[in-house]
Amino acid sequence: MARTRMHDYVRTRQISGPLLRFRLAGEEAAMREQAAVLSTTGRVGKTLVKEGALRITQVMLRKGSPLGSHQIAGPVSIQVLRGRLRLITADGELQLERGDLVALDAGVAHAAEAMSACALLITMAMQQEQGAS
């Protein structure tokens, strides 16, 4: 059987289980260091939770960094932890800032741009395949 490549953090820390606790400020500080060294795209992300259909990812964007139009098969929420983000959907544009939370239904196409350096917490409920447990 072919071995798939895992990110180092998946091998070295737990992303599923009956109880997980995260200190988001500490996660953000570690990501800021990583972004300074590794990111050429202006963004860096870290999956905090991957349990069943649930995905929780912390994302940092440099000012001006775009996220091209995309859609998720399940519902998604975007919480701004720090900074400002412009979110664009077919229904219009939202200017989001620290403390704002937006929920998008499954399949809603959206794009974004960091209006300032920002940190986001993105929660997704992925669609499960029929027969998957």
Task: Walk me through the topology.
Blueprint: H1 8-12, H2 24-38, E1 43-51, E2 54-61, E3 66-70, E4 76-82, E5 84-89, E6 92-97, E7 101-104, E8 110-114, E9 118-125
Structure, described:
There is one protein chain. With 133 residues, the chain is α+β, with helices and mostly antiparallel strands. The protein has a domain at 42-133: Jelly Rolls. Helices cover 15% and strands 44% of the residues. The strands form two sheets. A five-stranded antiparallel sheet has the order 1-2-9-4-7, with helices on one face. The longest helix has 15 residues, at 24-38.
Terminal Cα span? 22 Å
Cα gyration radius (Å) = 15 Å
- Helix and strand element order: HHEEEEEEEEE
* Main sheet: strand order: 1-2-9-4-7
Mean pLDDT, to the nearest integer, reads: 82
Low-pLDDT windows of residues: 1-12
Shape: globular
* Percent strand: 35-45%
From the 3D structure, determine the CATH topology of one domain.
Answer: Jelly Rolls
CATH architecture of one domain: Sandwich
Instruction: Classify the helix fraction into a percent range.
Output: 10-25%
Note the main sheet.
5 strands, antiparallel
CATH class of one domain: Mainly Beta
Number of beta-strand segments? 9
Structural class, please?
Answer: alpha+beta
Provide a brief overview of the structure.
This protein is α+β, with helices and mostly antiparallel strands. Helix content is 15%, strand content 44%.
Task: Identify the notable features of this structure and list them briefly.
single chain; 133 residues; alpha+beta; Jelly Rolls; four-stranded antiparallel beta sheet; 9 strands; 15% helix
